[in-house]
Specification:
5 helices; 7 strands; alpha+beta; five-stranded mixed β-sheet
């Protein structure tokens, strides 16, 4: 049963990544506020995050970001999924957001083990699993690749840095309302699931 569940998770993650990459040419565009996206993800994941203390500092007056709300939720959810898997019960997870120039920066930090410097870029590769966690934490090695792909599809970027408490995942997404003009005059693009 466990192996069947792992295979199912691998297939689902692979399909998610393929769907995201298919949207790359014509992503669904809507205006989203990061605080509402974070709230939505926290609500959906409250069962998994219940053993942790979640500290949120995302102002509700940040400029909107343009993109697919479902994908933004999936991007944040992938990082929070890692946070609860890799950090001990009772530890803290911080979520912070702010505006920096023309970008919204979102960080998710936890009190889990630091990721070695030589692995900090490799962890965003498909199927990469850290040396120390391969046997102890379940996963497909696709979650961070999915998060990175979502950020890049929306003109953003993602990176990892070491904070005093533990690893800190950072996202930068372009800020601002949907513009007017030919490049924005198309119907939203939907993919049937």
């Amino acid at each position: 049963d466990e192996e069947a569940d792992r295979l199912d998770a691998l297939i689902q993650d692979s399909l998610d990544l393929a769907r995201i990459q298919a949207r790359q040419e014509n992503p669904r565009v809507e205006e989203c506020t990061i605080d509402s996206v974070v709230s939505g993800v926290l609500d959906k994941m409250k069962r998994y995050l219940a053993r942790h203390t979640i500290i949120v500092s995302v102002p509700d007056d940040l400029p909107v970001v343009r993109g697919d709300r479902f994908l933004f939720e999936q991007m944040i959810g992938q990082i929070l999924d890692n946070a609860w898997k890799y950090a001990a019960a009772g530890s803290r997870v911080w979520i912070a957001g702010w505006q920096e120039n023309a970008e919204i920066i979102l960080t998710i930090r936890n009190e889990g083990p630091q990721i070695p410097e030589e692995e900090r870029t490799a962890i965003f590769d498909r199927f990469y699993r850290g040396e120390r966690s391969r046997a102890s934490v379940e996963g497909t090695g696709l979650g961070l690749a999915i998060a990175k792909t979502i950020a890049e599809v929306h003109g953003g970027r993602v990176w990892l840095q070491a904070a005093e408490e533990g690893p800190e995942f950072c996202f930068a997404l372009p800020a601002g309302p949907i513009g007017k003009g030919p490049e924005n005059d198309r119907e939203p693009y939907y993919i049937a699931d």
